[in-house]
Amino acid sequence: MGKSATVIAASMLAADFGRFGQQVHDAAAAGCEWIHVDIMDGRYVPQISFGAAAVAAAKKGAATAIVDAHLMVEQPEDTLPAVIEAGADIITFHPESTRQAWRCAEMIRAAGRKAGVALTPAIELAAVRELAAAADLILVMTVEPGFGGQKMIKQMNAKIESCRRFIDEIGRPIRLQVDGGIGIDTIAAAASAGADTFAVGSSLFGCSDYAQQVRQLRKRADG
Ligand code: DX5
Ligand code: ZN
Fold first, then answer.
1. Does the C-beta of 192 come closer than 6 Å to ligand 1?
2. Ligand 2 being an ion, which residues bring their Cβ within 5 A of it?
3. Cα–Cα–Cα angle for 212, 184, 181, nearest 5°?
4. I need a surface site. Which of 31, 108, 133, 150 has the fewest CB within 10 A?
5. Does any ligand 1 atom lie closer than 6 A to the CB of residue 149?
6. Model confidence over 34-79: pLDDT tens digits?
7. How far apart are the CA of 114 and the centre of ligand 1, in A?
8. Average pLDDT over the chain, rounded to whole?
9. Residue pair 163/138 in contact by the 8 Å Cβ criterion
10. CA 210 to CA 200: how far, in whole Å?
11. pLDDT tens across 150-178, in order?
């Protein structure tokens, strides 16, 4: 089956929150197909960031963008209804954050949205081997979740390769997303390892010309 077309997802955690809607619009106008919204609860990860309202604001900020909500919360089954209601197109959760991972995936898909399952650096592919049957995306975290601006953990490239082999083996149309420390210096290796979807926070919002940065990132990802 192989990789799907490259998608660049703007991670709003690195945006200027005071101009949230405008920044969503700018990222989409610069060529980001997806808007990545990190939802944190201060329990699964130390920080509190956005809630479901940010998903609704992102939908409003760019009519054409696909909003990709990344849930870093305990018991995502409690947060899911609000995130679905807010209009998220893709909703990704961490399987070990819930005792009901299958139910979470089914709640998302029953609402007509796409379900993603995320692996933190220490959680192995085995955690989603069966669950992948109910998923549309696997997210390999390339930093510990919780904060933007961290350095990519290079050892994760081997895990991306294993995930790519696994996805190709099962032959389902599952996107392979990477998140954390992805930028000009790290995107090519992640792409050759098999990733097709790239969340970029600080490497996008930290520069002055977003469109040029997205072009450069895409060029490197497409090799
Ligand atoms: C980290 C978040 C990421 C973060 C990435 O917990 O899931 O989406 O925003 O930020 P950068 O691209 O700056 O590493
Ligand atoms: Zn994220």
1. no
2. 38, 70, 179
3. 120
4. 133
5. yes
6. 999 999 999 999 999 999 999 999 999 988 889 999 999 999 999 9
7. 20
8. 97
9. yes
10. 11
11. 999 999 999 999 999 999 999 999 999 99
Q: Is the CB of 14 under 6 A from ligand 1?
A: yes
Ligand 1 atom with least separation from CA of 13:
9
Q: Is the pTM of this model over 0.85?
A: yes
Q: Do β-strands 175-179 and 137-141 pair in parallel, antiparallel, or remain unpaired?
A: parallel
179 catalytic residue (yes or no): yes
The residue whose CA is least distant from atom 12 of ligand 1 is: 201
Side chain identity at residue 112, one-letter code:
G
Of 38, 41, 68, 196, the catalytic one is: 38
Q: Are 119 and 110 in contact (CB under 8 A)?
A: no
CB-based contacts of 222: which residues, under 8 Å, 6+ apart? 6, 191
